Amino acid sequence: MFESLSDRLGDVFKRFRGQGRLDESNIQEGLREVRLALLEADVNFKVVKEFIDRIRERCLGVEVMKSLTPGQQVVKIVHDEMVELLGGQSTDLVFAKGAPTVFMMVGLQGSGKTTTTGKLANLLRKQGKKPFMVPADVYRPAAIEQLHTLARQLNVPSFNSSADQNPVDIARAALAQAVEQGFDVVLLDTAGRLHIDEPLMQELANIKAAVSPQEILFVADAMTGQEAVNISQSFNERLDISGVVLTKMDGDARGGAALSIKRVLGKPVKLVGMGEKLSDLEVFHPDRAAGRILGMGDVLSLIEKAQEAMDEQDAMAMGEKMMRAEFDFEDFRKQMRQLKKIGSLDGLMKLIPGMGDLRKKLGEMAPPDKELVKVEAMINSMTVQERRQPKLLQDPSRQRRVARGSGRTEQEVAALLTNFFGMQQMMQQMMGGGKKGKKGGMPQ
Ligand code: GDP
User: Which UniProt keywords apply (predicted)?
Assistant: First the structure.
């Protein structure tokens, strides 16, 4: 998802790198490129204009923070604004208290509505809820069967609708059955058409009036870009939807719908479909999505988090070292000690892109906190020179000495080194070449 937009913006930010100072002309030029990248990604043009205006204003108005280079500052501003554009915080689904919750799924045919209903049932069940799937598309008999099939696959109960029933009656009867049988969430899969038509809108409005859903989720195919945004407006005008589910994000390299819909509709994207499998539905996190678009994982939040706990200069020195993949065992130990102020290593590692493997390995070896003590003992047993030049430790006799000194096994020392070099390599890859490019591939 977002690959093409991310590549384009990556190129733009590379050019900001090394700019000593931000002035009107280089900001102007950079923002023109950002604007083009967004328009190419099929973002709504009004949204793009507003977005660029806000960034220009903030770039010009801002006191450049000591700790960040001007280029980094621009990336940070773009990042913050992009999080806002994508909806700010992730938005929880709303549930009723004491009575069954009703979620009404609406959208055009082929948008992924029925599949999403199944995925949502799966997600809710994992959260310990008892979903009830209700097919209310009586015009396409195959739709009823499609939902029953999904329900059977998931082993979730479904309402026995028949094609000669009125959808409003189906919705009412299903809700009554949910009350009777103790289901928590009624998932109403409504009819879709190829185009918006008035009788359908009226029917959806009648269902809404009959069962007062907590959520009316508009399901849209992200790959249709602005088309999805336009259609969502029509649905919103009639139904006052509560949120959007963007499907097929796995195939959407541009991100135009995701980046426009919140601003245009004022309604958040709550969930995203990431594939055809029933487990491929995720809660939408604007901050993670922005990080992904800007190709930096959550490095910015890592810097921010570190800034809170460490003195600013220290944090930046560390952040920059990480970006340049010049991070050595001295830094590692220093950071481990500072982590006690920040929280668990696990929490921090979650923010570093590509850390999943390392976390898993550490997790397999021992609980993270105990592991920290062991790791620190091993680092303490290294000489200063070894800590500064970790490559020296590739020598097995040095590894043996460190193992003896720290009371750990040689395998543990070897594992620490493997993880450390793996981490360095990941950082290098993530930063697009690390040391080679002098300042690394990270926008500076
Ligand atoms: P409906 O007519 O709106 O109910 O659409 P369906 O649920 O039948 O989905 C239409 C097609 O889109 C099916 O082939 C689904 O497998 C596919 N689909 C739905 N959601 C996703 C998704 O998130 N990613 C991908 N790749 N395909 C999806």
Answer: Cytoplasm, GTP-binding, Hydrolase, Nucleotide-binding, Ribonucleoprotein, RNA-binding, Signal recognition particle
